[in-house]
């Protein structure tokens, strides 16, 4: 039906209209390309004038099923769902859509708009509806970011969703659940077993994970991230035994781990990040002649681990024979007097240091240690580096919390200032005399203007 202003307009055949539009485009641009999904011939009889400059029409309904499925898989989840609502062929593809990423942005949910509980229920219902209508095959990526949902998301929800999507063929699995579930939900080992042959990336947050040898060989697994996961060192070791291609490992806030041992068969491991595992006492990396042969720069962050045995990092240095630069962050410290040696020995000769056989660094030129304190294991490590690194030229020992890019010192609590001063005293007593003339030693001390007056103002420690 035409509008009142177009009552005299005659109906036009769609194919005629398309030909005229293509003719206009050709006149202006010299060629024409039809939009996907349009029907009707590109060149009709009488259109030979433009036939030489036209391109073939891409008709989606005539494409092979696998090609259409691939095209559909390339669009975002929300757009893929909309396409499934208007096309039967896309609907069939939607039921085996490969990339399932569920977060608040996917569902266009505003974190600040309306009652949180109602938005969380809407989110959970949407995920449930999608996964219940999915065929369960063809999933390549499952990324469940449901942390803001609180207790709306239950362990039962998670079990149903994971069982529906985690199958053989999945490549990436990421699970970030509400913190309230951290002591209620255990990730099933049978799930990862079902995906053992294909899984390449595995990320867990706020849950329990207790691997057993029945998992099988995770031969394709390259990236692993565990955050606030309840897992012991023995269980983590069992998990390592099932992997052969691991390249990146991140372990954060996993307080059940007291000892972390990297097995010698993980030759491809390139990135290791261990962050605030409060009970972690040591890293022991076995040495093999073919490990990290091309690694030039090494950075290790041991923040907040006051029981940590810094001397165990010698194994990392041994594993990097071509290392040129080594950076270690040893602070901040929460139990500042623990492992302190300043008041334990009266002079440097009475310090009984550990030794390690056959350790020599011929390429190491610069070593920087921030958060340097009076811990015996840290002094042992520093002295060993000095004795074993013939090419060393710069040694920077920063007893403070660091300085920003403008050179302005950071704020320090009173206890931190006191520990920094003990670190300075330890450097003078046990390290300075061992520094060769070829090495430039730089010691960063608490600021006389910002930090030291704080001790006088606050008075003696309680």
UniProtKB/TrEMBL annotation:
Per the record, the domain of life is Eukaryota
At1g61320/AtMIF1 LRR domain: from which residue to which, for each copy? 283-447
Pfam families, alphabetized: F-box, LRR_At1g61320_AtMIF1
Q: Which SUPFAM superfamilies match?
A: F-box domain, RNI-like
Span of domain F-box = 60-99
InterPro entries under this entry? At1g61320/At1g61330-like, F-box-like_dom_sf, F-box_dom, LRR_At1g61320_AtMIF1, LRR_dom_sf
PANTHER family per the record? F-BOX DOMAIN CONTAINING PROTEIN, EXPRESSED (PTHR34145:SF64), OS02G0105600 PROTEIN (PTHR34145)
**What is the official name of this protein in its record?**
F-box domain-containing protein
Species: Urochloa decumbens
């Amino acid at each position: 039906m035409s509008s009142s202003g177009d009552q005299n307009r005659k109906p036009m055949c769609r194919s005629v209209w398309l030909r005229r539009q293509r003719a206009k485009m050709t006149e202006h641009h010299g060629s024409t390309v039809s939009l996907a999904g349009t029907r009707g011939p590109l060149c009709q009889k009488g259109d030979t004038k433009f036939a030489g400059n036209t391109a073939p029409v891409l008709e989606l309904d005539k494409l092979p099923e696998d090609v259409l499925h691939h095209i559909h898989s390339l669009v975002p989840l929300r757009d893929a769902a909309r396409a499934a609502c208007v096309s039967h062929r896309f609907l069939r593809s939607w039921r085996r859509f490969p990339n399932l990423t569920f977060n608040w942005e996917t569902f266009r949910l505003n974190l600040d708009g309306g009652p949180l509980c109602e938005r969380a229920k809407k989110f959970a219902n949407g995920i449930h509806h999608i996964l219940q209508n999915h065929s369960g095959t063809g999933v390549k990526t499952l990324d469940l970011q449901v942390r803001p949902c609180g207790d709306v998301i239950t362990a039962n929800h998670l079990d149903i969703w994971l069982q529906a999507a985690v199958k053989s063929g999945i490549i990436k699995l990421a699970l970030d659940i509400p913190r309230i579930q951290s002591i209620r939900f255990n990730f099933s080992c049978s799930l990862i077993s079902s995906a053992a042959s294909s899984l390449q990336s595995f990320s867990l947050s706020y849950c329990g994970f207790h691997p057993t040898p029945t998992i099988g060989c995770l031969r394709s697994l390259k990236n692993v991230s565990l955050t606030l996961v309840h897992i012991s060192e023995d269980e983590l070791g069992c998990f390592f035994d099932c992997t052969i291609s691991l390249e990146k490992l991140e372990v954060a806030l996993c307080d059940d781990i007291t000892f972390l041992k990297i097995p010698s068969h993980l030759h491809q491991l390139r990135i290791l990040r261990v962050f605030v595992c409060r009970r972690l006492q040591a890293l022991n990396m076995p040495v093999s002649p073919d490990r990290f042969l091309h690694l030039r720069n090494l950075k290790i962050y041991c923040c907040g681990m006051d029981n940590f045995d810094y001397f165990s990092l010698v194994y990392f240095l041994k594993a990097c024979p071509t290392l040129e630069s080594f950076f270690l962050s040893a602070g901040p410290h929460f139990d500042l007097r623990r492992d302190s040696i300043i008041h334990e020995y009266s002079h440097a000769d009475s310090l009984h240091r550990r030794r390690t056989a056959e350790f020599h660094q011929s390429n190491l030129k610069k070593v920087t240690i921030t958060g340097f304190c009076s811990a015996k294991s840290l002094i042992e490590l520093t002295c060993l580096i000095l004795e074993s690194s013939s090419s060393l030229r710069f040694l920077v020992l920063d007893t403070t919390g660091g300085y920003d890019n403008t050179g302005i010192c950071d704020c320090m609590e009173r206890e931190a200032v006191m520990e920094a001063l003990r670190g300075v005293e330890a450097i003078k007593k046990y390290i300075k005399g061992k520094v060769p003339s070829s090495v430039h030693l730089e010691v960063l001390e608490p600021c006389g203007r910002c930090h030291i007056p704080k001790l006088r103002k606050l008075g003696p420690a309680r």
